[in-house]
Hints:
By secondary structure, the chain is an alpha/beta fold.
Amino acid sequence: MSNTSTSPFDIEAIRSQFPVLEREVNGRKLVYMDNGATTHKPKAMTNAITSYYETINSNVHRGVHHLSQRATDAFELTREKLRAHINAEHSYEVIFTKGTTDSINTVAWSFGELVKPGDEIIISTLEHHSNIVPWQMLCERKGATLKVIPMDDHGVLDMEAFKALLNEKTVLVAFNHISNALGTINPVKEMTALAHEVDAAVVIDGAQSMPHLNVDVRDLDVDFYAISAHKMYGPTGIGALYGKEEWLNKLPPYQGGGEMIDTVTFEKTTYAGLPHKFEAGTPHIEGVIAWAASIDWLNELGMENISAYEQELLEYGTEALLSVEGLKIHGTAPNKSALFSFNIDGLHHYDIGTLLDQLGIAVRTGHHCTQPLMNRMEVPGTIRASMGLYNTKEEIDTLVAGLNRVIPMLK
Ligand code: 7TS
């Protein structure tokens, strides 16, 4: 197979910005293929964290003093950069949260206040637990019903079944943009249009799409979009919830506390406007500020270039992995991200993962927080190699060589 790339960016220059990629694990150069769990961080981002603490550390939105104003400006600049990155109309439609899980729970609790007994919520077979459990909890609280869009054996959602599930009782539809376990890219725009025909709100779990795709929330016309910074080369503990202004204004706040109020008396509290209504308490200030460096860095590379390069990795990797005897790839949707979920005939995923680690190759094994999906595929778990933009075809060769080395050890 060819090792040449038609990528417009210089992969060695990119890798040099990630010191961790130079380290050894178990005496071998690290091959990091667990980007679906979290990505590594470019120096631009980690430098931004240090710079924040060394120059402007302060609480935001409250001080009259210079440092607080500088910190507030930097904090709000990230909101604007994220707005532009996802093409939201207003920066106040971007709410900072702890991450995707927190964003989905925010909607489930706030929107949940409007849900009545008998209402229906639709999710899909492909969901991560964080896009299942909050809706189950809501249905239990409110006497609503949860419905699930089925999928075919390739990991493609069944659109006819989805249409049949939609009706006047459907109040909300939630599904991911990209599946973390199979890599399926879902047709968000088409599904959103169908949901809107019955006036259901649409919540997209964007945890896995933000590092790989150019996301345009206005073109997709989604009502909510949940994001984790740590999966898009940003810091952990910070993320965002995009919400359409009309929805965010309609929903009650999720948490009460400082910063989210307008006036407080012991008798009554009035809430602040957007986005502060949904941001109670001191936020993850350095996380927000440093996230801007990751967003800038991604935009310098260009999301379209990143997608194109990763599609090359997908094509190369699929062919290379299928050369391994007894290997079955789970997730063969025609529209897919660079993620390989697989099993080896007769062997346990965990044993393979453990032996690959001995060779310095980092993959994830198990159910990937998608137990219902694993049940649907009738496997206890998979081995998952999820690519980031710094991965190379040579590393895929190393993975394949690693598999060919460890498989005979287990037979
Ligand atoms: N949704 C999807 C599709 C995900 O992949 C994940 C994390 C989440 C939600 C939760 O994101 P968090 O940042 O709030 O934790 N997925 C994974 C994974 O695939 N391996 O480790 C975490």
